[in-house]
Design brief:
This protein has 457 residues and is of the alpha+beta class. It folds into three domains: 151 residues, Beta-Lactamase (2-Layer Sandwich); 88 residues, Signal transduction histidine kinase, dimerisation/phosphotransfer (DHp) domain (Helix Hairpins, Orthogonal Bundle); 142 residues, Histidine kinase-like ATPase, C-terminal domain (Heat Shock Protein 90, 2-Layer Sandwich). The protein contains eleven helices and twelve strands. It has a five-stranded mixed beta sheet with strand order 2-1-5-4-3. It has a five-stranded mixed beta sheet with strand order 7-9-10-12-11. Helix 4 runs parallel beside helix 5, helix 6 crosses helix 11 and helix 9 packs antiparallel against helix 11.
Amino acid sequence: MLRSLRFQLPAFFLLGVVVAGLVSAAIALRLFRGYAENRARAQAYGELAREARGLTELYARQAGFKRLSAARLELATGDRIYYSGVSLFPGQKPVFRRLPKGSLDLAKARAQPVTRFRFTSPEGQTFLAVARPLKVGAQTFGVIVLAKPKTVLRQHWLALIERLLIAFAAGVVVAAGLGVYLSRRITEPVLDLSRAADEIARGSYDVDMPEVRGGGEIGDLAESFRRMAVRLSEAEELERGFLMSVSHELRTPLTAIRGHVEALREGVVTDEEMRTASLTVIAAEAQRLERLVGDVLDLAKLDAHRFTVLHEEVEMERLIDRAYSTFSEEARRREIDYELSVKAKPVIVSDGDRVLQIVSNLLSNAFRWTPDGGRVDLELSAAGARVQVAVGDSGPGINANEQERIFRPFWSRDGGGTGLGLAISSELAVALGGRLTLESSDEAGSRFELILPSYPE
């Protein structure tokens, strides 16, 4: 549980709040300590001054003092009461405590309305005190002193700390609640994604992705996960289709080869012309098998980044003529308007065999989708340090959704073939330092363009 994200998120969030609260409290205490002490001191002196004034007025009137004890007066005021000076009632026991010697300059205190000072009692306790002259008529007899222990300042200080602790505790409770809420909001979609990942790992791609309220990074993750599941489902379907297509593509030439070999071995074919025709079919089907296996190997090399590109001088005009002539017979047989346009005769440094493979794949794809009596164009041009080879057709065109998939391995528009030709051509173009582009519409057909650098970068 301690390693669970659901526990760690609120724990770290709460820890951060606690640390921040402690730091803030320490700074607040440091900043407001002096202010709180000064305010408490001023408040204490103010209370003492008011009480001293009342007592001196009461004492001056001499009303009821003989019936009041010092203990009762101290209990009523909550402070200690001292007297320093000439006794108002000679021969009687002093009503108030005697101020410790040396605590106050009596002459100065009698001359001032109010005197604030500190003193230490014989017990060693420090007091905040206010002295006020005691006058009866025009004569000043002494001073009455009211004192509070200095610990009252600490009480105010402790009250401030108590309030800060209450606020801190309330903040921690609120932060804990927010942490738990945020943790659930974050971890629940993550746990749902984890369960969905387990389903996908078991081969079930039709899983429900969690709906994340408010979007954000978790929402983006869920959407990316959803797209990944769709792509994996498509990939599995394409792989299944590829295996079926490859099986079919392999079985057809193998069946033809085996039939002709058996006929030759059993002596069924005796005529020399028929023997030559059978051997021609065997050679053509073997070449077809070799091309299919070569496509698979090329794709594997490209995916593993183990593909080697040669650098040699390539006369593009001769290469294009060679590719053009390969499909001339098919164009004549199907009455396709097949045209070659050479607008430049560049010589580039590249891998001629691979360039020829790309152009041948593009032409093969164009003839496959062009109906009988249609049109296929092959064009060679150059612009600066770039060479362009374009192949256009009058086929049905490719819609926008299919244009995104057409260069993926194993994908075929009609489910026929291996779906490797355009995928390999696109990867080869990149390996040669160029790129393969596509423009297509329902009215004008499709136009593939191979763009290559004159010299390798």
